[in-house]
Structure formats: structure tokens, C-alpha cells
Amino acid sequence: MLLTVGIEYFDKKDPIKIIAQDIIKNNLLPKKTSGIAYDLAFSAPTTVAINSQLNLLQKELYKLGVDYLITETMKILFVTEKANQIQAKKYILRGINSYDCPKFFYLEKVQKRFNKCDIIKSPSMQNLIDIMIMLYM
Question: Is the pTM for the entire model greater than 0.70?
Fold first, then answer.
């Protein structure tokens, strides 16, 4: 049975898991999984997104216990190199431009608001935002 990466996958919640499960279910050869990787790669809008999707698929296949050779076919070297270059440039630019975070989101201020949260009552929208900020940090 041939596996295609098509619109049906992208209508569901987690297309990466579905693709990984189909690769295992159909016991595909490395050559076919390489084709799937290329199809998946060129469905993403940016190089960084392409690299991210391929890494997610690799990790999902690894979790499911797929052979090393198949997970290696998910790597597209020129995509990885280009994504790394883009991310390195953005990192340097963020350092040069020095992102200025509003004082409202400084760790100390968020911690104070977070400590004032009453967990017995239903959380307010601000409490939920503060929790998300703390988890992000």
C-alpha cells in the first residue's frame, strides 16, 4: 500500500503522529520514507518550519521504535543547514537589536502577581496569563 502525504493528514489534529503511525503500519522501506520526508518538507511555508516538521517526525518515529535507517532518511541536509543559518542570523540580530521586554513581564513582577493568586477561587484571565509566562520562562 502506498502512503501519500496529502490534504487528509493536514485536516487532523496531529499530522506528524499520523504519518509516523502509517509508516510503521505499512512497514515502508527507507526509499519510500525519504519521499514522504520530501513531501512533508515542501508542505511547510518556511525553511525553519520544514526543519522543525522533519525533526518532529524523526522524534515520533524514534519513540515508536523504528529502525535507525528509516529515521535517518528523514534528514534533508540542505534544509537543516539552511535552517541553522537562518536561526543563527536571527540570534545575532536579536543580540544586536536587544529585545526590550516590557517591565510588566519582568520575572520579579510576574512572580509577585503569581504569589498573589488564590488557587481556591477560579483563576482570572490575568492569573492564567501569569502562569503561562512563568511556564514559558
Answer: no
> Which DSSP helix (H) or strand (E) runs through 80?
helix 77-97
pLDDT at 85: 93
- Residue 125 has a pLDDT of 79
CA distance 89 to 77: 18
Tell me which residue of 55, 44, 42 sits closest to 84, measured CA to CA. Answer: 55
Report the pLDDT averaged over residues 46-66. 88
Radius of gyration of the chain (CA): 21
> Cell 514559558 appears where?
136
Residue 68 contacts residue 101 (beta carbons within 8 Å): no
User: Can you read off the three cell numbers belonging to residue 85?
Assistant: 543559518
The dihedral region occupied by 69, where left means phi > 0, alpha psi between -120 and 50, and beta the remainder, is alpha
| Residues present in the chain in total | 137
What single DSSP character describes residue 44? S
What is the Cα–Cα distance from 45 to 4, expressed in whole angstroms? 19
Contacts of residue 28, defined as CB under 8 A and 6 or more positions apart, other chains included, come to 3, 36, 70
